[in-house]
C-alpha cells in the first residue's frame, strides 16, 4: 500500500470514533484531509465541526459540513488529527502543517484525541522530525539562541522565500538536533519562553488512541 492509501485507510477508520449528534474536532494535514472526505458521508448525522485551521475549514465547508467557532461550543467528544511523529506513550510532534496553535486549542477542548497516521510516524523517541515552534516575530532570534543553547538548530520556516505567516499572524521556527526524551518537561519549559506562542510537542495534549496505517491494515494503539 502506498503512503496515500495508508492515509485513506486511517482517515476512514476514524469515522468509528465520531459520535453521532456531536460536533467533531478536526485537525489539519494530508491525513486529516482523508478523514474530512470520509466525514462527508456522515454529515447528516453530526451538527458540524470545530476546525484547527483555515485550510481545514475551507475543506469542511466545501463538503457542506458546518464549521463552528471554538468559543461557540463546549467540550467536544473527540478530536481527530494527524502527527509528524508519535511515540509509544501517545506523545506527538506536530506542526508540519503550521496549524499547531489552533490544533492544541481544539485538542484541549476534546475528551479524547484520536491520532490518525501512517506507520512512518511511529517513533521510539521524538525529535528526528524538525520540531515546529510558533513564535512572535519579534522574539525569533532570541528563541533561535535559546535552542542553540540546548544544541538545537532553529530555522525560520520560509514560504516563497519569505517567513511563513500562520493563521494567527505569527512565524514558525523548525528545530533540528533535539532528542525529546522527556516531552512533558520539554513542552512545559519551552512554552514559557518569552515570545513562544506554541511548541509543537503534544505531551500535555497527548493522544489516547492512534489509528496507525500499516501494510497489514489499521493497528489501533491505546495510550
Ligand atoms: O501540522 C500538523 O500537525 C499535521 O497534523 C501534521 O503533523 C501531519 O500532517 P500529515 O498528515 O500531512 O503528515
TrEMBL record:
Matching PANTHER family, A to Z?
RIBOSE-5-PHOSPHATE ISOMERASE
The UniProt keywords, alphabetically, are: Isomerase
Q: Which organism is it from?
A: Variovorax terrae
| A biological process term (GO) from this entry | D-ribose metabolic process
Its quaternary organisation is: Homodimer.
Recorded GO molecular functions are: ribose-5-phosphate isomerase activity
What gene does this protein come from?
rpiA
The active site consists of 103 (proton acceptor)
* Record's protein name: Ribose-5-phosphate isomerase A
